[in-house]
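ingest -> validate -> predict -> emit
validate: passed (alphabet ok, no gaps, 726 aa)
predict: started
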Amino acid sequence: MVQTMREAEAVGEEAGGATTLPETIAALERISRNYWWSWNQDGQAVFRDLDQEVWDLCEHNPRRLLKEAPQYSLMRKATDPVYIERVRRVAEGFDAYMAAGADTWAARNARGLTHERPVAYFCAEFGVHHSLPLYSGGLGILAGDHLKSASDLGLPLVAVGLLYHHGYFRQRLRRDGWQEEAYQQINVGDLPMRLVRGEDGEPVRIELDVRGHTVLVQAWRVEVGRVTLYLLDTNVEGNNEIDRLITGHLYGGDRETRCVQEMVLGIGGVRLLRRLGIDPHVFHLNEGHSAFLTLELARELLEGGAAFEEAAREVRSRCAFTTHTPVAAGHDEFVAALIEKCFGEGYWRGLGLSREEFLNLGRVNEGDEEELFGLTPLALRMCRSSNGVSRKHGEVSRELWNKMWPERRVEEVPITSVTNGVHAPTWVSPLLRSLFEEHVGAGWTEVLHDAEAWSRAVDRIGDEELWKVRCLQRKRLIAFVRERLFEARLQQHEPRSYAEAALGMFDPESLTIGFARRVAAYKRWGLILTEPERLRRLLLDADRPVQFLFAGKAHPQDQGAKLILQQIAQWKLDPEIMQRAVFLQDYDQEIARQLVQSVDVWMNVPRRPLEASGTSGEKVALNGGLNLSVLDGWWLEGYDGRNGWAVGDATLTETVEEMDKRDAESLYRVLESEVVPTFYERDERGVPRRWVEMTRHAIRTLAPAFNSDRMVRDYALRVYLGGQEK
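emit:
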């Protein structure tokens, strides 16, 4: 049962109230209200060091930490001059960052975007931090990084999403390896969010006609640096129980729930911005989930007397669409009867359209009653620009959606690309960050965009320095893995001796390979298991052992993916394999951070060309890890033969079976003849010189091209300000 409106308002008031802290560290209260702390140099650490045990129990949520930390912990730090000075410096940095009139990139280069006419960024999920569990995977993490870079660059942007009261599921594997899901209720009182209220102090509510009746929607405000994220919420008194649960679960429920969620996001999001007096310069639809917003914009114009075609042209001039899905089956589609039920004929009549004309907006082939209503066709039709998230994905998307423009050649289809990037301050390890500050300077993130200057600075990092950092990171990762396994076994009521055995697993000196992503057939989780004995020899080599870390979730309704996951889970139960292969349950941002900062190699082997981008590998590259990946998505752009390894080649003429067989052979060969020998080839000082040079070259070549500051600058100049009508 989700909370009632009165309960939500009560905890919302609690979230808005101040936690009483000793005067010397009182600044922690206001810092905790803005997710800026999550990527600031000392932001996380200054909260963690208040009380490490409570920090972990609170899942790194500073709002809970400040409420639940023992009084003695607070007073101990409040009387520690060194800690007091740290808090002062962090608070000073926060105030300077948030000060009005700051000299930012956007202020100098994107003056057409203002706080009066900002970018409105719509997405179904946001991975700002794992304490705000409103994400399931790569789309949400990418959206979170987009907001952070927009903030760092000073780009005027507001974001709109949904507040899922139960978030995404928590994962647990049974002893037989089968995935089980559990949902936990989010307590908004424990999070830095405030209920959006009007000048009269009352909650701002908007109304939508859904399934033949009115649904009330409220909104919560989350601060992400200089960017505001609005989260729509139907858990409002006055709604029936079914409507309250519209914003219950991320990607949960049936097709009808998904359709209604997307109505709330798109239509409700536009209405909220109007109520708040925000008139965006451009609406950015990050994936098709928010495509209904284009209909709402058209409806507004029709109320002003425009005809639909005239309104559609105006809507197109103000909307931009990013697609993240390289296969048709991955795009949201609904049967016509469901669209009719959720919208009702009053909505399309308000657009001056017949039922048929309304449904045609979401069809590739107008008049085809057998075709489903697709949000991607709607977005492609109603946005001035569309882009994929890597060059290859742009090419694949042009081929996939050529049917929307049958009169054009594939290369003329109006879908471009902006390659994804990752937010460097969020994902770079503290040790490597310190190394960058020493050799590049305190403003190292501002040098990232200058490939030549960045390369010169990185070249100043000595082999021994870089290798030491990488070894320390690996040791930290192994300690993290051991602790996670120990705790998991205790929670599953395993024998104490078995739980304690986890504390001795894995070798902090051995080559460590990470493989973490959503569990799906095309991700080819089983490719590494193609030749079990060959893999066994790699893992158990006495002189040059290899160890694997796996993590990922299967969609609750994807039984095939669950079987794939079970295969991995059962394989690693072999007593010998168990020492060299681990599956980390409940993959989230914290596990991802530990992995991408510390693994030696990141393995990624999806079937080509189904990897739209693949930002996890970009995070690894920022940290000096090396990618072992198929030539698809971002890696097709980034790989130069010296900054990692390629699995297979870019051939796409084979059958699926032939591709899988050839890629499996390539994967084993590269591991055996290139990856393992290079890692274990040491000089008299114990340093693998060739490996370290590859590490340096990866940082040198990949960091400037695949960070989200570059990505957001591209969107600002090419899409937000430079987007042209198709």
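The chain has 32 helices and 20 strands.
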